[in-house]
């Protein structure tokens, strides 16, 4: 077995992509999505003038802490991702109209996916990491965007930036720099390095 029997590994997220990354690495993980007002936390970070990396860490920590309070012996993984383009922070689109507006703003430009992950146990952060992959979206036509939105459907309404790189969203880009797993929402290579150091995963 790659994974030690204890501590229990918990993912404080309902993200299917994050879960798939951990399970593909043959890790046993309990899924416990944190119930937080993420939009409010993000607004407070922006009002305080926090930079995107600090805000992403704040959100990831809040998720891990919310679950860790009830599971003090578990090792809780919290993660969050912010999209930043030309200084603006993008949220999950939520509606078809917002989706199309966001995609039109992103096309022909580069943006950064600020992706934070923390590990929490016994009331404190044991480790944290922020990755910042950069992606450049092609200057695609309105017709292409409409076809893309039709193909992907409602699934991309809950994705930051309105795309899934593991789906048809890969067609939107002509340049990608950074670890693939970080783009999907969880910087897996540095996370596994910490888990080995901490004895959760065997070296």
Task: Please sum up the structure shown.
This protein is an alpha+beta fold and 203 residues long.
Topology overview:
Elements (H helix, E strand, L loop, with lengths): L8 E3 L4 H9 L5 E2 L6 H10 L4 H17 L6 E11 L2 E3 L5 H11 L3 E12 L2 E8 L2 E4 L4 H11 L20 E5 L2 H4 L4 H10 L6
Parallel strand pairs: 1-2, 1-3
Antiparallel strand pairs: 3-4, 3-5, 5-6, 5-7, 7-8
Helix pairs in contact: 2-3, 4-5
Q: How much helix is in the residues?
A: 25-40%
Nearest-angstrom radius of gyration? 17 Å
Which outline best applies?
globular
Number of domains: 1
Q: Given the helix and strand composition, which structural class is it?
A: alpha+beta
Main pleated sheet: 8 strands, mixed
Distance between the termini: 11 Å
Description:
The chain has 203 residues and is of the alpha+beta class. The chain has a single domain (9-197), classed as Maf protein (Alpha-Beta Complex). The chain is built from seven helices and eight strands, in the order E-H-E-H-H-E-E-H-E-E-E-H-E-H-H. It has helices at 16-24, 38-47, 52-68, 96-106, 142-152, 180-183, 188-197, and strands at 9-11, 30-31, 75-85, 88-90, 110-121, 124-131, 134-137, 173-177. Strands 1, 2, 3, 4, 5, 6, 7 and 8 form an eight-stranded mixed beta sheet that branches. Helix 2 (38-47) packs antiparallel against helix 3 (52-68) and helix 4 packs across helix 5. The longest helix has 17 residues, at 52-68. 35% of the residues are buried.
């Amino acid at each position: 077995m790659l994974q030690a029997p204890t501590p229990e590994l918990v993912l404080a997220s309902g993200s299917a992509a994050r879960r798939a990354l951990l399970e593909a690495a043959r890790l046993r993980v309990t899924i416990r999505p944190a119930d937080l007002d993420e939009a409010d936390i993000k607004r407070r970070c922006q009002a305080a003038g926090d930079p995107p990396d600090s805000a992403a860490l704040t959100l990831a920590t809040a998720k891990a802490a919310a679950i860790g309070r009830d599971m003090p012996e578990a090792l809780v993984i919290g993660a969050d991702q912010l999209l930043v383009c030309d200084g603006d922070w993008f949220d999950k689109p939520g509606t078809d109209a917002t989706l199309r507006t966001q995609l039109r703003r992103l096309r022909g430009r580069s943006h950064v996916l600020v992706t934070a992950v923390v590990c929490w146990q016994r009331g404190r952060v044991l480790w944290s990491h922020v990755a910042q992959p950069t992606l450049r979206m092609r200057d695609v036509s309105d017709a292409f965007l409409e076809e893309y939105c039709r193909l992907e459907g409602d699934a991309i309404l809950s994705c930051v930036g309105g795309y899934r790189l593991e789906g048809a969203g890969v067609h939107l880009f002509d340049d990608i720099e950074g670890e693939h797993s970080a783009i999907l929402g969880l910087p897996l290579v540095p996370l596994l390095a910490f888990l080995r150091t901490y004895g959760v995963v065997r070296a």
